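Try this one yourself first.
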């Protein structure tokens, strides 16, 4: 059986397609483009959500580690002269832990001498001090910590009256 070619008058000239076919083609093209854009937006949103979840997890872990850093610092401050061999081991562990935190974007801050700012400081007491203005941080009881500029833990401070 031989295939028959269409006669010249049966073929539509280029550019003169059925308007219904053109409209349908345009609708499908628009649908495909919209679907592709939605998929790309979804990918970006998921990537952003995953990054935010990772930051929240990191912040949670660091918050749990901060009391360990505080306790190591207290141990170093209370070491007697005869305990320096033990204090050296604690100093090494403390330095390693602090370096790990810094590599991960965690920075400590000690606001002693600065004006009290409730965004960064938690006042645990007040004290009258001659020659100081009211609202000045006199002592830092516990250092504060930030992760990429966001306060993880405010510094716990004594403020002048």
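Now uncover the answer:
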């Amino acid at each position: 059986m031989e295939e028959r070619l269409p006669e010249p008058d049966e073929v539509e000239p280029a550019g003169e397609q059925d308007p219904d076919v053109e409209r349908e083609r345009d609708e499908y093209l628009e649908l495909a483009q919209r679907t592709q854009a939605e998929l790309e937006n979804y990918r970006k949103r998921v990537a952003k959500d995953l990054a935010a979840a990772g930051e929240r997890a990191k912040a949670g872990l660091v918050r749990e580690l901060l009391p360990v850093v505080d306790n190591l610092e207290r141990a170093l401050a209370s070491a007697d002269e005869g305990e320096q061999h033990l204090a050296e081991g604690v100093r090494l562990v403390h330095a390693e832990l602090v370096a790990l935190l810094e590599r991960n974007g965690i920075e400590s801050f000690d606001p002693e001498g600065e004006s009290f700012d409730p965004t960064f400081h938690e006042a645990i007491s007040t004290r009258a001090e001659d020659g100081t203005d009211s609202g000045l941080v006199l002592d830092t009881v516990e250092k504060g910590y930030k992760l990429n500029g966001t306060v993880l833990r405010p510094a716990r401070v004594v403020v002048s009256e």
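Discussion: Strands lie at 106-109, 121-127, 137-142, 144-147, 150-153, 155-160. DSSP finds two helices and six strands in the chain.
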